[in-house]
Structure formats: C-alpha cells, structure tokens
Amino acid sequence: xxxxxxxxxxxxQPIGMTALxxxxxxxxxxxxxxxxxGIRTHSVDGRPILDVAYKRYDSILYGLGLHRGxxxxxxxxxxxxxxxxDNHSVLT
Length: 92
Description:
The protein has 92 residues and is of the alpha+beta class. It contains three helices and five strands. It has one domain (9-83).
C-alpha cells in the first residue's frame, strides 16, 4: 500500500481545543467535528509509529476531526457573533 492523501481534514488535539474554547469557537466546532479518542499510526510494514489514547492521560480528554472547508463556516459564525455582541472585541 502506497501512502497518499485521503482527505482534507484538520485534527484538533486536546490542547488546541483549549485554545478554541478560549476563543469562543469550541462549541461551534464540536457541532461539525467528529470526536477522536486517540491516534494510532503505523508504517507500511506494520511497525507502530504513534499510539496516543487520550483517556490514558485524563478520562475527559478527546480530540476533534474537522473537514478544513468547514473552518470557513466556523469562522463566519464566529465573526457574526462578534459583530453582534458588544462584550467582545477583535484584535488584528
């Protein structure tokens, strides 16, 4: 089997989800994303390369997988929220 690109996805690790939460984006992204409980990769000949099960570190941890095209929707949603809420400011 020859490695190749399969999709156009973005994976959010638990630490990235903390940042999304602080930015006010996590709730929206969770609506569109797929829960990831861990990542396991291996070489073509079956040797393990990466094996991370988030629950080994804390039972509440998980990641999210999201098609990168959906990030445009999430961004637009967030911009709409900011422009209609006086309690937020945007830094550029």
